[in-house]
Write a structure and sequence with these properties.
two-stranded antiparallel ribbon; TIM Barrel; alpha/beta; elongated; 10 strands; 2 domains; single chain; 12% strand; six-stranded parallel sheet
């Protein structure tokens, strides 16, 4: 083999070596990219599940009674900004002052979030049967059937209150501007439909929610400046859980806690899927009446049960 031939062979070997190294690099890069992508997808999925879990808890979905709601309020981290202006509160101005003693007349406020729905008329029919008034924290719907429900709530002497127009956490809590826009849209809708200038609000997830991207003190200050009262709860029925729950469970959840407090605000839901709530309502009312409890709609005289307030 001549020197020229040897040189040609060496060049071919070098070229094959470079091609092989390039192929190995490409294979390694693609493999690493696939692995990193899979890990990222898994991490994002876990984050979404975690956030949904927080939303469920703060909506009362993991709570079978008022005690778990207290834990949510007490353990809130409020890591979205300067929260020195916030004060954690246990069910109003004084948890101890609200503890029931022998001989106390219990005040119970039945509240229903998320309506109008296909179950609204059923709930209203039951309340009418027992001559009981409740409070409905409604969302924004502009169809004629929903407008009829808004008016029925008012006409039958219940308290019409606000629970955000969209009920979309990602929108409402992304900025104060979005919160204001959502709030004003619902307030204007309810006024146009019913003539009621609503001044009572319930934050989606409660004032202690850990989902908001903006410090909750900004929203609370806005409502305070607008002379809008906001109401949380200290008794949860457990009807927000995605797991199956029976009517008996709901009654037990409520009755085990209302006897603890002079003033109880009971969290329930008015939604198409809440058949167990409708089924539980007659028994719940009868048991509350047997305890001698006053079942009342929220009024100007109602003590505001609030998980979080602005510090004085």
């Amino acid at each position: 083999m001549t020197a020229e031939q040897k040189e040609l062979v060496e060049k071919k070997r070098d070229r094959r070596g470079r091609v092989k190294r390039i192929k190995n690099f490409i294979v390694t890069f693609i493999t690493a990219w696939i692995i990193i992508s899979m890990v990222s997808i898994i991490a994002l999925t876990a984050k979404v599940i975690s956030l949904q879990h927080q939303i469920d808890e703060l909506s009362g979905q993991k709570s079978s009674g008022g005690g778990n709601t207290a834990s949510a309020a007490q353990s809130a981290d409020f890591t979205d900004g300067d929260t020195d202006s916030l004060a954690l509160m246990n069910y109003g101005s004084s948890a101890e002052e609200n503890l029931a003693e022998a001989g106390d007349t219990l005040k119970v406020y039945l509240t229903f979030d998320d309506g109008p729905s296909g179950n609204s008329d059923k709930i209203l029919d039951i309340l009418d049967d027992y001559n009981v008034k409740a409070t409905f924290f409604v969302v924004g719907k502009d169809d004629e059937e929903s407008k009829r429900i808004y008016n029925r709530i008012v006409d039958e002497g219940h308290t019409l209150a606000m629970h955000s127009y969209t009920h979309k956490y990602s929108y409402i809590y992304s900025s104060l501007d979005n919160f204001k826009s959502d709030f004003e849209k619902l307030q204007n809708l309810l006024y146009d439909v019913t003539g009621v200038d609503c001044d009572l609000y319930r934050f989606p997830g409660g004032s202690s929610n850990q989902v908001s991207n903006t410090d909750m003190s900004e929203y609370i200050k806005y409502l305070n400046d607008e002379n809008i009262r906001y109401l949380d709860w200290n008794v949860a029925s457990g009807d927000a859980t995605s797991a199956p729950v029976t009517a008996d469970d709901l009654v037990e959840n409520v009755m085990s806690d209302v006897v603890k407090y002079k003033t109880s605000v009971v969290l329930m839901h008015d939604a198409d899927s809440k058949d167990a709530t409708v089924e539980a309502l007659p028994t719940l009312i009868e048991k509350l009446q047997a305890e001698g409890a006053l079942i009342l709609p929220v009024s100007d005289d109602t003590e505001m049960i609030q998980h979080v307030t602005l510090a004085e």
